[in-house]
Structures are given as structure tokens and as C-alpha cells.
Amino acid sequence: MSLLDQPQIPLPVEMEKLRAELAGIICRNTGEDGSYATAVEALHLSRHSRPHEFSPALAQPALCVMAQGRKEVRLGDESFLYDPLNYMVVSVSMPVCGRIASASPEHPILALRLDIDPAEISALIAEAGPMGVPSRPTGRGLYVERLDTQMFDALLRLTRLLDSPKDINMLAPLIRREIFYRLLRSPQGYRLYEIAVANSQSHRVCQAIKWLNGNFEQPLRIDNLAREANLSVSTLHHRFKAMTTMSPLQYQKQLRLQEARRLMLIEGLDASAAGYRVGYESPSQFSREYSRLFGAPPLRDLARLRLSV
């Protein structure tokens, strides 16, 4: 049974009131389907009124909250579900796939995303001092955690600022810091803590991920990447896979294929040109690996995408 087929647990009465107000604010500020930047820095709102199957994307560090509806996200072979009872945190950039099984114009998916700047997390840790965050082995760079009333309240106060623009500059940074502080103090806050603390192994893996994100079209030599991260080859491979479920080579491949898809869909490049642009020298290898990730060769996949828009 898919995660989205599992019965949805109702919210406690107090949290349901907060959820309904949050959904109303998102609904008022998203006229049509899509994702919208807001006047509050790092805050994005989204609405989707149609279901869609798994669609690959490069997720950036963020806190993701669902005010209405449910979404399933896959990282490698693992699936995560977030809904009004559970938020999702992406602590490092990584390729994922997302699916919405149920949505309609009458009952759209309504969600918010608060982007996370690791530098802001580092500054918060330095200012707050020892926080009692346990040190644990490297975990996934994506996790789901139960929402509590305090977190829901802080998120609601942040989105309410959209109705009082004059207060945004003064209050938004304070509320955003409160939200990040609560994330750090949550049961899985160590995952954010580890990537923000300089010289931790998780932080060094993040440096390797950052390098790959900016240089994915170049040939990958694992020993060079290990030097970039200041880790041994074996430690890099182990920690990288623990965080992303992928080896560095698999990660690079997903980045290349997602960018090639964008180049064909948005910039109109043909398959061979797009493959070459992202680092493939063999058109047949590009088509084969593209089909493996997206379920169809480039021309058929693009035709299907255009038909769905």
C-alpha cells in the first residue's frame, strides 16, 4: 500500500484551528496553481489542484509544511509522507521525486516552504550556545517530523505577516529564527545541527554536494571530490550514501539528467545537444539513462510533459 493510501489521522482541535487559518492565508495569496515567492524572505506558498505522478526535482534545504492535502516524496528507494500533522525538512540539496495522488479545484493542495540557509543555522547555533543536541551517525538529508502546536503557531505568525506588510521587516527575521531554533531542538534537530557545524563530517559531505551541484557536467574523479571535502574516499562514499541514499556518481547522474530535461523543455534543445551540454559524450548512453530515470526516452517524455501542461 502506498503511503498516500494510508488513512489520514485527524488533527487535535486546537491544531485544526491553526491549520484552517494557515490554509486560508495560503489560499488568499495563491490565485492559481503554482509556487509563489512572498514579501517575507525565504517564504514560498504553493497551490496544486491536480494530482500528478512522481516528478523528479532538485530539492533545496527547506522546511516544507502542508496546510491542506498530502504529498509523498521519494529519496532513492525510500518514501516520506508529509501532511498537516507532519512537516518535512530537506537539510541538503538532493534529487528527489514528489507525487500528489489527490487534489481538485475544490480541495487543492495548499503548502508553504521556508528556505533554510545553513549560514543562518550556524549563526543561530553560535549565538544560542550549547543546545544539548546529541551527536549521532550521519542520517538522511531529508526527514519527516511531527508538528506540534508551538511550531504551528510560529509558522502561522510568519504567514500572517503577509496581511500586515509594514511589520515584515521587523518581525519576520525574529519569527524565522524562532522556527529554526525549534527545528534544532526537535527530536531530529541533530541533522540540521551536524550540517551547520564547520568541520563535522556531515558538513564536509555538504561541501562535496555543493561542488557536485556546481560542476555536475564535468568528469567525476572520486579522489578529487574527497580532497574537496577533506575526507578519505571510503568515508566520503559511506557518509554521502548515508545522507542521500546515492553514491556521488549516482547523484551526479540525476543532476545531469534533470538539467538535460530542463534544457529540452524550457530552452528547446534537442536530445543530443542537451546530453552533450550536461556531460554525456554518447547519445545512446544518455537516452538509455534518461529512460531509466523518467520512464521514457527523451522525445516521448517531453511529449507527455507538454500534453499534461
From TrEMBL:
InterPro entries membership: Homeodomain-like_sf, HTH_AraC, Tscrpt_reg_HTH_AraC_N
SMART domains hit by this protein: HTH_ARAC (SM00342)
PROSITE patterns cross-referenced by the UniProt entry: HTH_ARAC_FAMILY_2 (PS01124)
Keyword annotations of the record: Transcription, Transcription regulation
Entry GO MF terms: DNA-binding transcription factor activity; sequence-specific DNA binding
HTH araC/xylS-type domain ranges (all copies): 206-304
UniProt cross-references to Gene3D superfamilies, sorted A to Z: Homeodomain-like (1.10.10.60)
Name under which the protein is recorded: Transcriptional regulator, AraC family
Organism of this sequence: Pseudomonas batumici
Classification of source organism: Bacteria, Pseudomonadati, Pseudomonadota, Gammaproteobacteria, Pseudomonadales
